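Why Chorismate mutase? Reviewers of the renewal asked for a concrete example.
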Amino acid sequence: MTTIQEVRAEIEEIDREMIELIHRRVGLAEKVLESKQKEGMQINDTGQNHVVLDRAVDSATERNLDTSSVKEIFEILIRMNIERQHELSGEGNLP
Ligand SMILES: C=C(O[C@@H]1C=C(C(=O)O)C=C[C@H]1O)C(=O)O
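Here is what the prediction returned.
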């Protein structure tokens, strides 16, 4: 039988992986901003936000996860990326 310590070690490993993935995702803000500045695009792209959220909700549905919770997580991830792009463009935390 698995001990609580073993399960917690597995959770810790997953948490570390998630932090690394969040770091990678936020890290892409620089490349995205560069392309947007070249193309004259706005930082917040509501159409793309929908694409990302719909994709996350579909994946969550396939795995029988609570879709509204998964959507909240992805809304936070999108916000973090947008905030990072604003920081990098020297605008601070504008909406
Ligand atoms: C990363 C982008 O910039 C913003 C952040 C997004 C995201 O974190 O997925 C999606 C759309 C944009 O509002 C992008 O346009 O792809």
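Residues 32, 44-45, 48-49, 52, 77-78, 81-82 surround ISJ (CB under 6 Å). This is the kind of structural detail the renewal will allow us to pursue systematically.
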